[in-house]
Amino acid sequence: ELKVEQNPLFLSMQEGKNYTIYCNYSTTSDRLYWYRQDPGKSLESLFVLLSNGAVKQEGRLMASLDTKARLSTLHITAAVHDLSATYFCAVPYSGGGADGLTFGKGTHLIIQP
Amino acid sequence: ETGVTQTPRHLVMGMTNKKSLKCEQHLGHNAMYWYKQSAKKPLELMFVYSLEERVENNSVPSRFSPECPNSSHLFLHLHTLQPEDSALYLCASSQWLVRGQFFGPGTRLTVL
């Protein structure tokens, strides 16, 4: 059974600081996805990581994937209040075509001025 | 309309009611999904449809019945639900998983 674990589950940080969210998964996969969810809203796709060593950056967020370690990181640089949200990582079930995703529990991020 | 739309956005129903959730994707994708998000559990996959064929039923109770009449539409028919079925139901679509799944706004369901 595929398990996806995120840590921390809750993070309160100050603006301007850097931090990293970790996502571990239990079975082989060469793909991983990061999503953002604002309160009462749906999920917004942030990053699609499709191979070992993949690194993607968008603004103050950078995501990476190490398939050998079964680990992905989401790094936040010089955080700003607008980044406050819940962040989820997700891994496909079997690596095929139309696979469902197994999600982590999410990291609830609060960035304080 | 663009992206993935869901109706209704909010639904309150009794345990003996029958209702349906509708999802429509305007992205030309070939796979659609239903997920459940409740306060007590992580996002859970319910059903997967690929090219209008169901390819995954993630041990979902039979009181939830999906229907995919074509590649753009997905329904979730609900009957004799329980209060613990109250949750946010999210629909998603993808062109398989090359670019990830795109989610609709969700239907907030309350079962009384």
Task: Produce a short descriptive summary.
The complex is a heterodimer of chains A (113) and B (112). Chain A is mainly beta and 113 residues long.
Report on this structure.
The complex is a heterodimer of chains A (113) and B (112). Chain A is built from no helices and 11 strands. By secondary structure, chain A is an all-beta fold. In chain A, the strands form 2 sheets. In chain A, strands 2, 4, 5, 9, 10 and 11 form a 6-stranded mixed β-sheet that branches. A 5-stranded antiparallel β-sheet of chain A has the order 1-3-8-7-6, with no helix packed on it. The model of chain A has no long low-confidence stretch (mean pLDDT 92). With 112 residues, chain B is an all-beta fold. Chain B is built from no helices and 11 strands. Chain B has strands at residues 4-7, 10-13, 18-25, 31-38, 41-50, 53-57, 64-70, 73-79, 87-94, 102-103, 107-111. Chain B is globular. The termini of chain B are far apart. The model of chain B has no long low-confidence stretch (mean pLDDT 90). The interface between A and B is medium-sized, with 25 and 26 residues.
The biggest beta sheet of chain B reads: 7 strands, mixed
Q: In angstroms, what separates the terminal alpha carbons of chain A? A: 41 Å
Q: What helical percentage do the residues of chain B reach? A: under 10%
Q: Average the pLDDT over all residues of chain B and give the rounded result.
A: 90
Using only C-alpha atoms, the radius of gyration of chain B works out to: 13 Å
List how many beta strands of chain B DSSP finds: 11
Q: How would you sum up the global shape of chain A? A: globular
Rg over C-alpha atoms of chain A, rounded to the nearest angstrom: 14 Å
Structural shape of chain B: globular
Instruction: Give the topology string of chain B: H per helix, E per strand.
Output: EEEEEEEEEEE
Q: Number of helical segments of chain A?
A: 0
DSSP helix fraction of chain A: under 10%
Sheet-strand content of chain B, in percent, reads over 45%
Find the structural class of chain A using helix and strand composition. mainly beta
Query: What fraction strand of chain A?
Result: over 45%
Provide the low-confidence segments of chain B as ranges: none
Structural class of chain B: mainly beta
Largest sheet of chain A: 6 strands, mixed
